[in-house]
Design a protein that fits this description.
8 strands, eight-stranded antiparallel beta sheet, globular, alpha+beta, 149 residues
Amino acid sequence: MAHVVDTQAFLDTVCELLRQGQEQIAIPVAGNSMAPFLHNGDTAYLRLPDSPLKKGDIVLYTRTNGQYILHRIRKINKDGSFFMVGDAQLELEDIPSRKQIHARVCAALHHGKLMRPGNPRWWFYQHVWLWVVPWRHRIMHLWSKIRRK
């Protein structure tokens, strides 16, 4: 019999374990807002940030309503707030406080392949894909046409 786990309670526990000293925790990716980099069912490995956060980092944060989200930092503002965006999205989301960021993704398992920062695919999405936010949907549409042929 399948067990149903409350996502909010699960991620509350993950964040608490990280704060208590757990070095790294693997979580399943739910949803496709980080596609094409990460897809539903992939695995993200989380750690507490051990260096300053930077543009392109994937982080686990909470929205002001308490919902947990795994997205990429698009911009860090001078006032310490952040603009976040999923790799499948065009709209930026404003996160007013660093306190809302709980962990950084330090590795990911995508289609059975482990990726870490420095991996060419990781670098492409952290830098190039982040730069082309306004054109993502056009690029993906063109790519899907090419793949069909």
